[in-house]
Design a protein that fits this description.
Layout: H1 2-8, E1 29-35, H2 43-56, E2 57-66, E3 81-82, E4 85-86
């Protein structure tokens, strides 16, 4: 996703990073996007990661987390719908 974004906005800098442990300096980004990576984590991990991401965004910057509207820890099999398909 970084390559297409860099082609679309060549004047911007893009930095792929592991969301859980990458060394990210406080207030070092104008914007942070986290799409669907949160789905792979427990609620406790999600809370910690979102708080961490909020700290690395500069004041007035943007944080854009996105996932599906299902509580994965509590969901029954087949309860979640993603892109029109029920989860297995």
């Amino acid at each position: 996703m970084v390559d297409p974004a860099a082609r679309q906005v060549p004047a911007a800098g893009f930095e792929p990073a592991g969301i859980r442990a990458a060394p990210l300096a406080e207030s070092s980004f104008d914007a942070v996007c986290a799409y669907f990576s949160l789905l792979q984590m427990s609620r406790a991990q999600q809370t910690a990661v979102v708080a961490r991401l909020a700290r690395v965004v500069r004041p007035g910057g943007l944080l854009a987390p996105a996932t599906v509207p299902v509580d994965v820890e509590e969901a029954e099999e087949g309860e979640g719908v993603f892109m029109g398909s029920r989860s297995a």
